[in-house]
Amino acid sequence: MSGRSTTSSGRLAIVLIGLGLAVAVVAVGALFLGSARVPPADVLAVLTGRVKGVDQVVVLSLRLPRILAALLAGGALAVAGAGFQALARNPLAEPSVLGVSSGAAFGVILAQVFGLGSSLVEAVGLAACAFAGALVAGTAVYLIASRGGGLPVHTLLLAGVIVSLFFSSAITVLISVVDFGRLGGVVHWLLGNLGPIAPGSLAVFAVVAAVGFWLVLAPARRLNLLALGEERAQQLGIDAERLKRRIFAGAALLTSAAVAFVGPIGFVGLIVPQIIRMVLGPDNRVLIPTAMLGGGAFLLLADTLARNVIAPAELSVGVITAFCGAPFFIYLLRSRAGDPRL
Amino acid sequence: MAFSYAPREPGAGAFTIRDLSFDVGAGETFGVIGPNASGKTTLVRLLSKVLEPSGGRIRLGGRDVTRLSRAELARLVAVVPQDVPRGFPYTVEELVLMGRFPRAPRRFFESKEDRTAARGAMEAVGVLELRGALLDRLSGGERQRVMLARALAQEPRLLVLDEPTAHLDLRYQAECAGLLRRLGREAGLTIVLVSHDLGFASELCDRLLLMSGGVAVRLGPPETVMDEAVLESAYGCRVIVDKHPISRRPTIHLIYPTA
Description:
The complex is a heterodimer.
Chain A: H1 9-31, H2 40-47, H3 54-88, H4 100-113, H5 120-145, H6 153-179, H7 183-189, H8 199-217, H9 220-225, H10 230-235, H11 240-262, H12 268-280, H13 284-308, H14 317-335
Chain B: E1 3-7, E2 22-24, E3 29-33, H1 40-47, E4 56-60, E5 63-64, H2 70-76, E6 77-80, H3 92-98, H4 112-125, H5 140-153, E7 158-162, H6 170-186, E8 190-194, H7 198-204, E9 207-212, E10 215-220, H8 222-225, H9 228-235, E11 239-243, E12 250-254
Parallel strand pairs in B: 3-8, 3-9, 6-7, 7-8
Antiparallel strand pairs in B: 1-2, 1-4, 4-5, 9-10, 11-12
Helix pairs in contact in B: 3-5, 4-5
């Protein structure tokens, strides 16, 4: 029988270079699209520094940071999804399904209610509060869903829904109590908001995301072995509990970074890793780096669509990902209907 | 390589093993038999450091197991489980390569040596042509050979098999016996076999340890351990001990109640 070949550094390099080029093309292309009509020649002029003025503001201060934020957030959410999936040994696990996004969102709103704005230092504080919320939500889901050392998928999904609902309600209560007038804005934010982001914040985002990426990517080989089950992985020399904690922290950090800077966006962590798995296989050493790039490209495409499809009005990017994600989730759930673990 | 074992009661886990003490000689095929909940699986967990004994010592080749790191232990001991989890998404070759992890835990990618060793292990058990196949698609016997290959890829000195014939058809039971015999005799591998299949254990093992309720009931060659009175008191049912027509090893006949 022939099947896929095993992973090697050479194969991974080819995949990443190819994908990296694709992402670069999409990113540059996105600079040319937007609700403010900037002719292509002018975009090029701005990029080469020949033109100043409104066009420069649009391309460099509005579109470019937004593109970078989309790439970072998409990559972060996709890798977080891959991490949660390896932990739960189930492809349905991802930050929004598990309620971790909602927990992080609650953390952000709580911090903003207490006055944290968007200056550099405050941005770090926001990310920290998001992280705390993400950890609480993730731990709650784990405790609720654990059954005799395993995480059966039906309890996992239910726990995720409950925790998600809890935090969404908590957010609504919080805003209603503090400043009812802002509720509409917050609801809009809850669908994902790749709005203008200051360079300082973007830098904080990048650093936090980098830490998260490293936490999940570096033990990728050990993560593969976790698919055997904790006991078998331990018998091969892995400290399974420590690995799980590390991946959980990394995935929660990535989720909270994305939520803190672009709002909670669902389904990226579900769709992107699964598509990569279908094409390249389940080896996390390939999956995680590819998800970093692929997730970024996916979210960028979704956001570009969201920005332009009903121009000059804007759809929230979370709407696009949800429209893609919900059917995909159903398809995954149904295709596993023959799986006796469910 | 000798292996000695003398725990009191294991700390973790819901089960207690008391006052157990035995040695396994290098190159020996050693069987652990007994009814369910006699402590056989707990023993496997103690040998692979999944559980720690709350008293006494487990020594491999003279070294205390608690002093070894998990990876060091995995280089010495390979456990062959009953099966892989359902829906396991990796191919045969990918699984066998996982067995190379303890040899070089710091590596991100496997080396050429790892691949060669994995191929050698797959060839030794006869699954090399299945290497690109998904585990889910294989038969029980094929999966077991793959897991054996993974254990061999660890290049261990001690092989521990946890209920190797549990899910196997007769044909694969015979195949498994042949493989283990070859590994024991030709490769000089020390094998500890935990099994509820008395005929299989009696056939393959140089010595047997009969456990019941967490204590050792008898230790010795199959002829000594497979004694009607001993087995009846351990298993709580009546048996007749006979000799296998070809190998002359002790075999069991269960006395079924009439009506």
